[in-house]
UniProtKB/TrEMBL annotation:
<feature type="binding site" description="axial binding residue">
    <location>
        <position position="137"/>
    </location>
    <ligand>
        <name>heme 3</name>
    </ligand>
</feature>
<feature type="binding site" description="covalent">
    <location>
        <position position="76"/>
    </location>
    <ligand>
        <name>heme 2</name>
    </ligand>
</feature>
<keyword id="KW-0349">Heme</keyword>
<dbReference type="GO" id="GO:0005886">
    <property type="term" value="C:plasma membrane"/>
</dbReference>
<feature type="binding site" description="covalent">
    <location>
        <position position="133"/>
    </location>
    <ligand>
        <name>heme 3</name>
    </ligand>
</feature>
<dbReference type="Pfam" id="PF03264">
    <property type="entry name" value="Cytochrom_NNT"/>
</dbReference>
<protein>
    <recommendedName>
        <fullName>Cytochrome c-type protein</fullName>
    </recommendedName>
</protein>
<keyword id="KW-0249">Electron transport</keyword>
<feature type="binding site" description="covalent">
    <location>
        <position position="136"/>
    </location>
    <ligand>
        <name>heme 4</name>
    </ligand>
</feature>
<feature type="binding site" description="covalent">
    <location>
        <position position="47"/>
    </location>
    <ligand>
        <name>heme 1</name>
    </ligand>
</feature>
<feature type="binding site" description="covalent">
    <location>
        <position position="165"/>
    </location>
    <ligand>
        <name>heme 4</name>
    </ligand>
</feature>
<feature type="transmembrane region" description="Helical">
    <location>
        <begin position="12"/>
        <end position="35"/>
    </location>
</feature>
<feature type="binding site" description="covalent">
    <location>
        <position position="73"/>
    </location>
    <ligand>
        <name>heme 2</name>
    </ligand>
</feature>
<feature type="binding site" description="covalent">
    <location>
        <position position="44"/>
    </location>
    <ligand>
        <name>heme 1</name>
    </ligand>
</feature>
<feature type="binding site">
    <location>
        <position position="95"/>
    </location>
    <ligand>
        <name>a menaquinol</name>
    </ligand>
</feature>
<feature type="binding site" description="axial binding residue">
    <location>
        <position position="50"/>
    </location>
    <ligand>
        <name>heme 1</name>
    </ligand>
</feature>
<dbReference type="InterPro" id="IPR038266">
    <property type="entry name" value="NapC/NirT_cytc_sf"/>
</dbReference>
Length: 184
């Protein structure tokens, strides 16, 4: 092989490598941008069926409180670590699908499936040991002496038993749905 051909192959290889790096960076940036946009309160509440959830959320301490710290939908429903975050985003695409297909596109249809949907979220939260809750609330950081006697007793017992937050705190932000009547 002559020198000009060898130089040409090296240049093409470097160009291909450079394009792959730039393409990879663009891909990662695009994915990150998509995640950031879909983690906003505005995006989460843009569907008609989420308006009920949004109204409930606005009544909670996670929306408005004396410290001014606000936890948004993504803070509670989207993990911080990249792997679980990507899985959650992939799984959440089904919600968009059901909105578009008309399965949950009205408040009435959403309410009819609410018990089922809430249980999916609760099971996911239990499986992750309430990971998203613990990004703000952690037993190790709780000043139990500042809590009511009941809360102090319950949190202490829950910590000793290794309980997860969602075991006791269903319905903190969203109204806890009633279990459907299974009798025909």
């Amino acid at each position: 092989m002559s020198k000009p051909e060898s130089t040409s192959v090296k240049r093409i290889s470097l160009l291909a490598l450079g394009l792959a790096v730039v393409g990879g960076i663009a891909f990662v940036w695009t994915i990150n941008f998509g995640i950031e946009i879909t983690n906003t309160l505005e995006f989460c509440t843009s569907c008609h069926t989420m308006q009920t959830n949004f109204e409930e959320y606005k009544e909670s301490r996670h929306y408005k409180n004396n410290s001014g710290v606000q936890a948004t939908c993504a803070d509670c429903h989207v993990p911080k670590p990249l792997g679980p975050k990507l899985v959650t985003k992939f799984v959440a695409a089904k919600d968009v699908y059901h909105e578009v297909m008309g399965t949950i596109d009205t408040p009435e249809k959403f309410e009819a499936r609410r018990w089922y949907l809430a249980n999916l979220v609760w099971k996911r939260m239990e499986a992750s040991d309430s990971r998203e809750c613990r990004s703000c609330h952690d037993y190790a950081n709780m000043d139990l002496s500042e809590q009511s006697r009941s809360a102090r007793s319950r949190h202490s017992a829950a910590q000793d038993k290794g309980q997860t937050c969602i075991e006791c705190h269903k319905g903190v932000v969203h109204h806890e749905p009633s279990e459907p009547d299974t009798n025909p």
